[in-house]
Amino acid sequence: MELALLVLEFNSVAGGIYISDVLVKEAGVRILDSRTVCPGKYTVTLTGDVDALRSSLRAAQDSELGETITEHCLLPRVHQSVVSAINAVPEYPGIKSIGVIETYGIAACVRAADAGAKAAGVHVVEIRLANAQGGKCIVVFSGEQNEVEVALAAGSSVAEEMQGLINKIIIERPHECMSKFLES
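^ thats the sequence. predicted structure below, dont judge the formating
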C-alpha cells in the first residue's frame, strides 16, 4: 500500500469534530491529528490507502456539516517524512542548512512539504500546522545547502500556486543554539 495523506480545514470547531468521526467510520483510515487551530478553525489530518481516504472525503463532504470544510488536500504517494514530521518531536542533529517555508493555509503547507521532500535529499524536520501561529503554517527542511535550496524552490512554488506562500528563508550553517528555538 502506498501511503497517502488527507488534510481538511474547517471554519467550525463543531463541524471538524463531527466530521472527524464521519471520516474514520467511513473507511479504514487513521487520524494523525484532529484539533482546534488558530483562529477558531479546526483541522483533521489522516493517513491510509488513497481509495479509503477518497471515500472518507466524499462521506465528509456529503455529511450534514460538509459545508464547514473550507479546504482539503489529498496527497497520494505522500513522502514518508511529511507524515512523520506532522506529529513528531523535531530533531536538529548536525544541521548544515535549514530552510523554512511559511504559508497561509494548511493544505499549502502540506503540499509544499511534500514537493520539497520529493525534489531534494532533505530531511523534513518539522511541520507546524496553524497552531498558535495566527493560522499560519511552516515546514522546516534540513540538509546540505544546495539540497535545501532545491526543496525551498519546489515547495514555495507549490505554495505560491495555491496563493498561500508568505515567505521562505534559508540559513546556511545556523548557530548551534538555533535548534532549541525552532523546537518550541
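DSSP finds six helices and eight strands in the chain.
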